[in-house]
Each structure stands twice: as C-alpha cells, then as structure tokens.
C-alpha cells in the first residue's frame, strides 16, 4: 500500500458526553415542561393533520408521567433514534426539534420511557449503541412519557452527566413550576386545548384554552382571561434577509402575533410559540419565529443576522399594535387603554436611558403620530373623543364644575384618567387644559 494513499477511519460520538453538553442548555423544570408541551402540540397524524388536544402532567412519588392523546408515528420514533437530526424542524406546522428538546428529561431521570403506537421504549443512555433502546410490544392508547425520578446519586448516568440526583422532597416542589409553565405556554399553542396537572393521580390544576378567531380565552377554575390577538408580518424584511443569508430556513415564518390581555400585567414575554425568558417591558406578549440563544431561553438582540431577524419581528409587532389599536378601548376600558399608552411611553424613555434594546421604542414611535386623530379620551359623560375635543381640569374645584361645563357642551376628561394627565399634555397627544376662571 502506498504510504501517501489516504486512510479512512470511523468516528463515533460519546453519547453521554453529547447529552452532558446539551443538557447544560436545557436546565430547569419549566424548560422540561415546555419541551413536552411543545412535543404534544406538534403531534400530527399519518395524514399530517393535528393529532392532539390535551396533555397531563402527573407528579408521582416514583416518577413524572406525562400523557397526551396523540400517537407517535414511525418517523417520530426515527427522530428519537437520530437525536439532533433536525428533521422535525423541516416539517410544516411544527415548532421544535424534539430529539434535542427531549434531552431536558435527563435532568430528572436516568432511563426515560416512551409508550405509544404499540411500542414501549426504555432508553438507557449509558448502554452500547446497539442496546441503548429496549423495545417491547404493548397495548397503548395515546402517548405516555414515564420519567422515573433519578434518586440514585451513584448511577452511571448521574455521574457522567455531572448532575445531582433528585431528592425525595423535590417532586412535590415541582408542582408549582410545572403549573406556571403550563399557564404561560398555553397562550400560543396550535392545537392543545386542555392542560392538566396532577399529584399522584389527583387533579391539582386544569387549564382550558379556547380559540375563536382572534380571541383566545383561557379558563382556570373561576378565573377567565381573555386575549385579543393582533396580527403583523415582516415578509419584505424576511425576504431581504434570506437573500443575504441563504441558510435561513424557508420554513421560518415572518408572521407576528401580539396577545393583549383584558387585564394588563406589568410586563410581557417574547414567545417562539413557547415562552422565552426574555421579559418584554410592555404589558403584552409577542409571538414570532424568533431566533433564540443556544440555551433556547432568551431571544437574541446582538449584531448578527439572527438579531436583525428578531428586530424585524418586533418592529412588525409594533405595526400590528397600531393597526389593531381601534379595538383596544373595548377590550381594556378607558383606564386600561391609558395604562397601555403610559407603558409605551415609559418604555421609550427606558430605551433612551439605555435600559432596553432600541427596537422596543418602536411601539411608541409607531403609535404616537396617530394618537391625536384617534378617539382615545374618555369623557366625564362617558363618551370617547379625540384629544383636541376634550378638556383637562387640574384642580378638585374645577372637577366639581364639570357638570356645568358638560351642560355648556364642553367635554371634560373623565376623572379616572387623572393619573395620565401628564401624558395627555404631551405634544404628540395635545389634550387642551381648561381653567374655570
């Protein structure tokens, strides 16, 4: 054999080492819950149609058991065998790459089990390649993930993954984290309608999600929260980015959804279908096909093509807010509407102080030029007026004269809006001041 002829060598993967490196990015019980919710929400039947409507988490003393009413297809089992193949990302209507996300379960279990479509798999990551998955034929209904708690600190999997065992008192504490993850994750799901949390088989928490056009209602017990969905898109910017960066997937969509609740929170989140940990300094949520950080927990806003994509999505969300603004008075009421405007203005000021990325000022910059022509001022006689049509009264004595002014045909700003008088006086809005003398 000629010494200069090339030789070919095989290359193998240290599977536990691979799991260890990926698991660093998938820590957290909430993250585990998100991955399993996402998997259930992505389930398709053999014809590619939506295949699930419910999911339940049962925190048992011996295991975490997660069930949904979908079934694994042959291709889903293949993807589980070829972790990180990325095949799921190419399938229309799906969110994630479940092979990678499933790695999150190893933070609580050594040997995860999958029971679906007549198969019972037990995965043993420490076993040789050809023996890593134990398969048996069993009768099944729906899909079940059984994750026996990894209580043994000396197991090979715990040692190789360099992760602590589960302590006996931890499972009950996981209930709150899983419940909150369910609550956040429910908003932008595609097909799941029922999410349940159990403790040793007993129902603890139940969320029902109903979508009717651009309205989403989420009910938990007696509490009902209504979300209005505003739509936007950034197709032009997306096309330009794809022209400049050919590796951007065609499947990555340029649609943006803004979810506005009828009860405004102090802050919102950025979602890539499921919630990220990127807090939005505004009282609503934004969902888009954002590029997340490597740990999939944050949305990137640096200086690369992924950040430019993400900023284009946020700007599109600002446009969606402007386009759908006329429907917000009915949803939020007069005080809620002005609380929203105050939040937009405050966010812009925070951006100017360097507290947030510049793109988040887009919401105020987009809406401000339109405010003077919109009927956004609620008057004491319970009517909506344009800012120039209403009058601000500053003192209590002047407010006492409001009935006289109304009889004279002078609309007076409703006293509930007194906390926002400073904002109303801004040049972009321009509500006039009236003194009784």
Description:
- The protein is an alpha+beta fold and 437 residues long.
- 31% of the residues lie in helices and 21% in strands.
- It contains 13 helices and 16 strands.
- The chain has helices at residues 15-23, 29-42, 74-81, 98-101, 156-161, 170-185, 235-244, 305-323, 328-352, 362-371, 396-400, 402-407, 421-424, and strands at residues 54-59, 63-68, 113-116, 119-123, 133-137, 143-148, 194-199, 202-212, 215-220, 223-233, 255-261, 268-272, 274-280, 285-288, 377-378, 384-385.
- The strands form two sheets. The chain has a 14-stranded mixed sheet.
- Strand 9 (215-220) and strand 10 (223-233) form a beta hairpin.
- It is elongated, with a radius of gyration of 27 Å.
- The model is unreliable at 84-98 (pLDDT under 50).
Highlighted features:
single chain, 437 residues, alpha+beta, two-stranded antiparallel ribbon, 16 strands, 31% helix
| Overall SS class | alpha+beta
Anisotropy-based shape: elongated
* Rounded Rg: 27 Å
The number of strands is: 16
Low-confidence stretches: 84-98
**N→C terminal distance:** 108 Å
In short:
The chain has 13 helices and 16 strands. The chain has about 425 residues and is of the alpha+beta class.
Topology, element by element:
Elements: H1 15-23, H2 29-42, E1 54-59, E2 63-68, H3 74-81, H4 98-101, E3 113-116, E4 119-123, E5 133-137, E6 143-148, H5 156-161, H6 170-185, E7 194-199, E8 202-212, E9 215-220, E10 223-233, H7 235-244, E11 255-261, E12 268-272, E13 274-280, E14 285-288, H8 305-323, H9 328-352, H10 362-371, E15 377-378, E16 384-385, H11 396-400, H12 402-407, H13 421-424
Parallel strand pairs: 1-7, 12-14
Antiparallel strand pairs: 1-2, 2-6, 3-4, 3-6, 4-5, 7-8, 8-9, 9-10, 10-11, 11-14, 12-13, 15-16
Helix pairs in contact: 2-6, 8-10, 9-10
